[in-house]
Design goal:
Distance between the termini: 86 Å
Number of helices: 16
Strand order of the largest sheet: 2-1-3-10-11
Helix content: 25-40%
Shape: globular
Strand content: 15-25%
Oligomer: single chain
Largest sheet: 5 strands, mixed
Number of domains: 3
């Protein structure tokens, strides 16, 4: 009995100690939160600026690309659209691209900083930015497909903390979308690479891997692009190292002279492949290559490549460690942002083909690869979940003669009405298993997307009299301006905003015919010719 009482007293004592520790931890959190009273506000500013305002180094690189590209070409038109979109996003504080990506924070803190509170307030800022329409609700349950609606969930956002000797807090943020994330590559050397031959465990083998990674991205990663490369590590740390390189500025110089030379060589050589902006063919394909190296196991030699698109959204802030207020910005100075375009419109040539949906078969069959189309009328937005649904179900609306736009928009409901605030195309290749059957089943006449589609869809276009229209990837503000109104939405509760079926009326929506009803594909042509160019680097 005495022993039982002693054990009971011990348990009560331990319980009181634990309660006291929890109270002290909670009090410390409150004190830290009150001490960093501006931290959440600073994080919200960082998120908004990163989503809407490209940093100066990226703007300069894109400006140079515009000057280098041949005037009057498809890539030139794409770059003009991109330039207008960048300015519109900055001027109106709208997302540059509708896919605001996976928010990835790299944070350096002084010793003793309360990372628990920081993480909590970063998540609160993420939720607020989503509610404001600066971030698209992108966090999806991997098993059920359900969208969390607020960009929070297991693993999202990504937050990495590290201590440093400075008394300041440094926060860097990268917003990297799914289209370019899907074009990441990892190689285990030695390896045999298509068009390049054997890649050995040396700088020459590394060079071949990076060139192959750029080539395989084509227009699906929204070229013009930039790559971060991680040499070594294991499979996990190699990819992390590659993505960390994207936090470097495009115009910096690698302190390792051999890597600096390799970075310069990759950019020069990649721009001879002829892939161009959006994979349309052109003089500029890559604006930056940044390489880092880590030790590895003797049995492993990984080359990991993180591909990023032209919408290279990366900014940072230095904060006061006591208040959390922004002391200065990283990656930019206080000068006004470089203007990219002369105005908010495109310079038309008069050769554009004006069409109004729904479309007639004879109109569509008259189109050919390279035609620039200005589309008006009703369009139906839908992507992965909708296409999977339509394979085995009826459509809630009549799609005969209709246009399907591969787009997951940013949408806000204001005064009872939906408003699309960002509406660029998503990568179409994900719909390849479904698209041909859907075209035939419903009588669809046009599909809008980016990056092109494969042989199965091309055959369906030819058989059924339909075309693929390539919009400019990332030009979310420009295309949102083309939307006159939302006419309806289906599957909103089931699929969430990005995956719902949106019915919108558009006016003068510009796109380029890249796959026609005659069986021609610009994407297949560029992939073939660029592969021929790639073989020239197999032994140099």
């Amino acid at each position: 009995m005495a022993r039982a009482k002693k054990e009971a007293r011990k348990k009560r004592s331990v319980g009181r100690q634990r309660t006291a520790l929890k109270r002290r931890a909670a009090l410390a959190g409150k004190q830290s939160a009150s001490g960093l009273k501006h931290f959440k506000e600073s994080m919200l500013k960082l998120i908004v600026e990163t989503s809407t305002n490209l940093p100066p180094d990226v703007r300069r690189a894109l400006k140079s690309a515009m000057e280098e590209e041949e005037k009057g070409t498809r890539s030139d038109l794409a770059l003009q659209t991109i330039a207008v979109n960048i300015d519109m996003a900055c001027d109106h504080s709208g997302p540059i691209c509708q896919d605001t990506g996976m928010p990835t924070f790299e944070i350096l803190t002084p010793v003793g900083a309360n990372q628990i509170v920081m993480k909590k307030e970063i998540k609160e800022a993420i939720v607020e930015a989503t509610e404001l329409g600066k971030l698209r609700n992108n966090s999806v349950d991997s098993l059920t497909g359900k969208n969390s609606g607020n960009n929070l969930g297991p693993g999202t956002p990504v937050i990495h903390f590290e201590q440093h000797a400075s008394g300041e807090i440094e926060v860097r943020l990268l917003l990297k979308g799914g289209g370019c994330e899907n074009k990441n590559s990892q190689y285990s050397l030695p390896a045999e690479l298509p068009n390049l031959g054997r890649a050995d465990r040396n700088l020459e083998g590394i060079r071949k891997c990076i060139m192959h990674a750029v080539w395989q991205a084509q227009g699906q990663g929204c070229s013009i692009g930039a790559v971060g490369v991680g040499i070594g590590g294991d499979r996990t740390s190699g990819y992390a190292l590659a993505k960390q390189q994207l936090f470097r500025t495009i115009d910096d110089i690698n302190p390792d002279s051999s890597l600096a030379k390799l970075e310069e060589t990759i950019v020069r050589d990649a721009n001879t492949l002829g892939i161009g902006t959006m994979g349309f063919g052109g003089r500029v394909t890559l604006i930056g290559c940044k390489i880092g190296v880590a030790n590895r196991l003797p049995a492993s030699f990984f080359v990991s490549v993180a591909y990023d698109c032209w919408a290279f959204r990366r900014l940072g802030v230095v904060l006061d460690s006591k208040s959390g207020a922004i002391k200065r910005w990283l990656y930019r100075d206080d000068t006004p942002a470089i203007k990219m375009a002369k105005g908010e419109g495109l310079a038309l040539t008069g050769r554009e083909v004006r069409l109004t949906a729904p479309l007639a078969e004879e109109q569509v069959r008259a189109l050919k690869v390279g035609d620039v189309v200005l589309l008006s009328g009703s369009v139906h937005m839908g992507r992965d979940m909708l296409h999977h649904h339509l394979i085995s179900h009826d459509s809630p609306v009549d799609l005969a003669g209709g246009v399907i736009y591969h787009c997951g928009p940013v949408a806000l409901k204001q005064n009872g009405k939906w408003n699309i605030t960002a509406a660029g195309p998503t990568t179409s290749s994900r719909e390849e298993p479904y698209q041909g059957e859907i075209i035939k089943k419903f009588g669809v006449r046009a599909v809008i997307g980016k990056g092109g589609m494969g042989a199965k869809t091309l055959a369906a276009l030819k058989e059924n009299g339909a075309v693929y229209l390539n919009a400019i990837g990332g030009a979310a503000q420009y295309y949102a301006k083309c939307i006159e109104r939302v006419e309806g939405v289906d599957f909103l509760q089931e699929f969430g905003i990005p995956e719902a079926m949106w019915h919108v009326r558009i006016k003068d929506f510009p796109a380029i015919v890249t796959m026609d009803a005659k069986g021609n594909s610009l994407h297949a042509d560029v992939e073939k010719t660029s592969a021929e160019e790639l073989t020239k680097f197999s032994s140099t």
